From TrEMBL:
Cofactor section: Zn(2+)
Binding site for ATP: G199, S200, P201, G202, T203, G204, K205, T206
Gene that produces this protein: ftsH
Keywords of this entry: ATP-binding, Cell membrane, Hydrolase, Membrane, Metal-binding, Metalloprotease, Nucleotide-binding, Protease, Transmembrane, Transmembrane helix, Zinc
Name used for this protein in its record: ATP-dependent zinc metalloprotease FtsH
Enzyme Commission number(s) of this protein: 3.4.24.-
Biological processes per GO annotation: protein catabolic process; proteolysis
PANTHER family found in the cross-reference section: ATP-DEPENDENT ZINC METALLOPROTEASE YME1L1, METALLOPROTEASE M41 FTSH
Keyword Ribosomal protein: no
A GO CC annotation given for this chain: plasma membrane
Subunit structure: Homohexamer.
Binding site for Zn(2+): H421, H425, D497
Membrane association type: Multi-pass membrane protein
């Protein structure tokens, strides 16, 4: 509001200056303006009674006059016409000459000062915008942008945080210290000066920090790591100093720095190198954190999902003494989080939060909050007064697989090929041991996928074993083999299946030591981003001959699993035909229909069959959706998304407990990776 008022003042000032300039330089234009040639003609015709010549030799003349019919006029003339005066006198025209008057003092001041005033005003406005309109006027850009949440306004407590019990236990003593610091100080102890919350996006790091301040009843300063660095040198360090000065005045308090990796990356690395502005800001942060007096009780809490890129000096004891991992919630944690968010919506008796928690492995707290919100939107769209289980299931399908594209039209042959493709994935998945059950198979286009096979684990997966990874490769090959066996033509729809299968086989050989020929050795460098705050260069530590052997071993694994999937589908042709027919009729089948087909029975209609039917499916129409032209190598979805959705977090006991949420990650034991909800897709 203050910025808006200042803008109005500047606008009013500018309008006033323009009005004054126009008033001072105003020329009466009620007279008729004529051309100079017309003026000479009227003089020769004796139509001009008198004229007043104004101006100078330098700027030219303005001739104002009155005709014999008492009408007035004016025209512009250059001083080069020497015959003008004699012509006027010969025609008995009364001539008055008025020399050009110098402009008034006020007008001269406006001419000279107006540009300077505009430049000064623009500079002040720019500086205020850089400072965010904060206190201190144009020179406040060095002030802290941390927002203060007063202890009376912070209503968040540990009761609002669910799904991370261990993390809450880790920070509980921080709350005790802030409530009664003398109890610890009398024993010579000190609380950790800094706590680093590390976890995947959406796991509740910010909420946990607010809960700490809410439980302790102390002020809470919050700022983002990107708010420190500006275009001006020294601004970041100045803001760090100012933030800690404010914190000391309000101690005991908590400073929360979100996304600290924006300013806390390791120094002296990266393509930029050198002592840049970010490094100065980091240096000042290190000094301030290690310069506290023990009685000031200012605790710094920072959050990041990239703890590996932080500067080691930032994580040493005395600064961020303690690192608290905020993991993705397990099934019990997901149930608790769903209960917290479900309090805000009216639930039908059919809603089973336990089954929803079991069916959402890998979901973060933010994902679960979004699930509840999407379910409420589905219920509102259907004019319901309460949210029931079907709304939650539809919301889960939308989040995992994308929104339905019911208006999309595809040719009957393309639709049948998609049905065989997805049936191939499902039949292979159900025929192999140690695989996740097929939860749903659909040829309903969703998001950027034309069909999906969704596998849902029965429990949270801690790690994956060799046989599970081999079976996953066979499942990925099921779609292409089904096209070859039952359609007679192969398409580009399996390109992403091949990409993922190759990636799994490569990881088995080069990282996980699952090849007897290559042995228990790592042949691949850790694939990470260049700007990790570490080294920019990457090295290849294996010879060309060894690389050829690695490639040959990868090819062997892929060929063997292709043969496994081929044999399964060739021996289950009747089940393939039954599933394809069911998909062509209903477009989506659930777990119940899959089990009936695998048992050799005819499947019963899905419970929500009427919900799946689209208007264009009615009647005899051989072209239900147009064929989609797909060039070789082109996919309807980006690389990293397939048409087999396999959910579940995979974390080995030796690995970093924070999953990697890269959509291209392979679910594999020992690396703490999580296969994001992508999908086995038939494009």
């Amino acid at each position: 509001m203050g910025n808006f008022k200042h803008l109005l003042v500047w606008l009013a000032l500018g309008i006033g200056l323009m009005a004054a300039y126009n008033a001072l330089g105003e020329r009466k234009e009620e007279s008729q303006q004529i051309e100079y040639s017309q003026f000479i003609e009227q003089v020769n015709n004796g139509e001009i009674a008198n004229v007043n010549i104004e101006g100078s030799l330098a700027s030219g003349y303005v001739i104002k006059g009155e005709r014999t019919d008492q009408t007035t006029f004016f025209t512009n003339a250059l001083p080069a016409d020497d015959k003008l005066m004699s012509t006027l006198l010969d025609k008995n025209v009364r001539v008055k000459i008025t020399p050009e008057e110098p402009p008034g003092m006020l007008r001269s001041l406006l001419f000279s000062l107006l540009p300077v005033m505009l430049l000064i005003g623009a500079w002040f406005w720019f500086m205020r915008m850089q400072a965010g309109g904060g206190k201190g006027g144009a020179f406040s850009f060095g002030k802290s942008r941390a927002k203060l949440l007063d202890k009376d306004a912070n209503k968040v407590t540990f009761a609002d945080v669910a799904g991370c019990d261990e993390a809450k236990e880790e920070v509980q003593e921080i709350v005790d210290y802030l409530k009664a610091p003398n109890r610890y100080q009398s024993l010579g102890g000190r609380v950790p000066r800094g706590i680093l919350l590390a976890g995947s996006p959406g796991t509740g790091k910010t909420l946990l920090a607010k809960a700490i301040a809410g439980e302790a009843g102390v002020p809470f300063f919050s700022i983002s790591g990107s708010d420190f660095v500006e275009m001006f040198v020294g601004v970041g360090a100045s803001r760090v100093r100012d933030m800690f000065e404010q914190a000391k005045k309000n101690s005991p308090c908590i400073i929360f720095i979100d996304e600290i990796d924006a300013v806390g990356r390791q120094r002296g690395a990266g393509l930029g190198g050198g002592n840049d502005e970010r490094e100065q800001t980091l240096n000042q942060l290190l000094v301030e954190m290690d310069g506290f007096e023990s009685n000031q009780t200012v605790i710094v809490i920072a959050a990041t999902n990239r703890p590996d890129v932080l500067d080691p000096a930032l994580q040493r004891p005395g600064r961020f003494d303690r690192q608290v991992v905020v993991p993705l919630p397990d099934i019990r944690g997901r149930e608790q989080i769903l209960k917290v968010h479900a309090k805000k919506v009216p639930l039908d008796e059919s809603v089973d939060l336990v089954s929803l928690a079991r069916g959402t492995p890998g979901f973060s707290g933010a994902d679960l909050a979004n699930l509840v919100n999407e379910a409420a939107l589905f219920a509102g769209r259907r004019n319901k007064v309460k949210v029931d289980q079907s709304d939650f299931e539809d919301a889960k399908d939308k989040i995992y697989m994308g929104p339905e594209r019911r208006s999309m039209v595809m040719h009957e042959d393309e639709k049948r090929a998609t049905a065989y493709h997805e049936a191939g994935h499902a039949i292979v998945a159900e025929s192999l041991p140690f695989t996740d059950p097929v939860h749903k198979v659909t040829i309903m286009p969703r998001g950027r996928a034309l069909g999906l096979t969704w596998q849902l684990p029965e429990r949270d997966r801690i790690s994956m074993y060799k046989d599970q990874m081999l079976n996953q490769i066979a499942i990925l090959y099921g779609g292409r083999i089904a096209e070859d066996l039952f359609v007679g033509r192969i398409s580009t729809g399996a390109s992403n299946d091949f990409e993922r299968a190759t990636q799994i086989a490569r990881e088995m050989v080069t990282r996980f030591g699952m090849s007897e020929k290559m042995g228990q050795m790592v042949y691949a460098e850790n694939e990470g981003e260049v700007f990790l705050g570490r080294s920019v260069t990457r090295s290849q530590n294996i010879s060309e001959k060894t690389q050829q052997e690695v490639d040959a071993e990868i090819r062997r694994i892929l060929d063997e699993q292709y043969a496994v999937a081929y044999k399964i589908l060739d021996e289950n042709r009747d089940k393939m035909e039954t599933m394809c027919k069911a998909l062509m009729e209903w477009e989506t089948i659930d777990r119940d229909q899959v089990l009936e087909i695998m048992a050799g029975k005819q499947p019963s209609p899905p419970k929500d069959y009427s919900h799946n039917v689209r208007p264009d499916d009615e009647g005899d129409n051989t072209e239900t959706r147009p064929a989609v032209p797909v060039e070789a190598g082109h996919q309807d979805t980006p690389s990293g998304s397939g048409d087999v959705v396999q959910d579940g977090a995979t974390v080995s006991p030796e690995a970093d407990p924070q999953p990697n949420l890269n959509p291209d990650s392979v679910t594999a034991g020992g690396e703490g990776t999580y296969q994001a909800p992508d999908a086995h897709r038939k494009d």
